[in-house]
Amino acid sequence: MKFEVVESGPSAIERPSVANDESLEQNNAWYDLQGRKLPGKPTEPGLYIVGGNKVLVK
Description:
3 strands
């Protein structure tokens, strides 16, 4: 029996897609610690989440 190895490159990993305006807007959205989306940057002091990062507003 004879086997042949064929290399065709990656098959399960796809190239990342380019972010559209909607996904960029979601990344810049502000959330409270209960996960509620805020209408804009908060004015009250506290901990918030923006872009997946915790932010302290003084």
